[in-house]
Amino acid sequence: MSDHPAYPVGLRLAGRRVVVLGGGTVAQRRLPSLLAAGADVLLIAPAVTPSVQAMAEAGELRWERRGYRAGDLTDAWYALVATDDPAVNAAASAEADERRVWCVRSDNAEAATAWTPATGHSDGVTVAVLTGRDPRRSAAVRDAVVEGLRDGSLGAPRHRDRLPGVALVGGGPGDPDLITVRGRRLLAEADVVIADRLGPRDLLGELPPHTEVVDAAKIPYGRAMAQDAINAALIEHARAGRRVVRLKGGDPFVFGRGMEEASALAAAGIPVTVVPGVTSAIAVPAVAGIPVTHRGVAHEFTVVSGHVAPDDPRSLVDWPALAALRGTLVLLMAVERLGAIADTLIRHGRPAATPAAVVQEGTTPAERRVDAPLSDIARRVAEEGIRPPAIVVIGDVVGVTA
Ligand code: SAH
């Protein structure tokens, strides 16, 4: 075979017949992108992996449960030959040659007429990398390019679909690796980032020098006005045509006032994109080793704000009802009122011995955890000097270990 490089091309397969021979792991890996391209996939294989079978059962492709027969490539625009029998692969490839059907062959790249590049996607861009005979290197280059596009370290300005407006981005619980890929990309593309005290502050340090970072906690006005001032700042920056990211801790809609900001922006006629985040309610217990559900232990978890005391007339929480539940309770903003909350739960029937844990600054290097029975947890938390932000987990899941 020649040493000429392959000629790259983007096949537009929508509605076009692609024949896949073999239903093993090679087919399993390739089928999703063929299906995503809209190909009319005919799969011929006596046996397939369970995931391939699921695609057939879902009607995503047609599966003929049999071996290859001469003539199977009639009508094919493209073929993937990946059976575990080299003789069959050779015969099918020969048929492909005869019919001038480009054909990828899993067992013998040299003999194939087409190669599958390592591909990845980032925000409407498809990256495809071919390195000839070094698939690991292709994958590594692909990863580097996709990662660079996602985190903005690879400068590739988007001219056409530059969206004005504000993205409400959930930054995750604190560890900078726990923001979503989309959140990270939007951060990298932002002109202005308005951040809170909570969330992945380390990410701010990675921003390019021209990105303006506004600390929401430092926006002037009194405490009551703070939210209005944040809304006003968001609107002002967006109206000036800047790409604005409102970076929030955890998920924007979990006790994050996300919808208040979204509706203020909507009222001002500014487009809003919501990017969900990894909420501390689930992630902080998880990273501390506590599953919020566990088979045979808890079939529900309830996330509750403890920012007002149980007997406060402003409270919207039905504490007696929560006390009657058997599953997991996750409390946010509850450190200061933990004593009153635990007493209320016990008074209304939750056993005093229920395991409880409090995790301060979860997913960060400062993470601390204190465990005690429900009746004792508030005292232990005070004793250990646990401070917000902290998550309280109450329920038998606290005792579950790997
Ligand atoms: N929107 C956020 C929650 C905001 S309310 C989210 O989805 O995670 C603020 C509360 O979240 C804090 O008082 C604390 O209870 C909890 N919290 C957020 N980050 C935390 C962390 N890293 N460790 C422990 N608790 C955290």
Major beta sheet, specifics? 5 strands, parallel
CATH class membership of the largest domain: Alpha Beta
Enumerate the spans where pLDDT stays under 50 for 5 or more consecutive residues. none
How much strand content do the residues show? Answer: 15-25%
Second CATH tier, the architecture of the largest domain: 2-Layer Sandwich
Bound molecules: S-adenosyl-L-homocysteine
Question: How many β-strand runs?
Answer: 17
Q: Supply the CATH superfamily name of the largest domain.
A: Tetrapyrrole methylase, C-terminal domain
SS content category: alpha/beta
CATH topology of the largest domain: Methyltransferase, Cobalt-precorrin-4 Transmethylase, Domain 2
N- and C-termini, Cα separation: 53 Å
The helix/strand order is EHEHEEHEEEHEHEHEHEHEHEHEHEEHE
Q: What is the helical fraction, as a range of percent?
A: 25-40%
- Specify Rg, calculated over alpha carbons: 28 Å
Mean pLDDT: 92
Number of discrete domains: 4
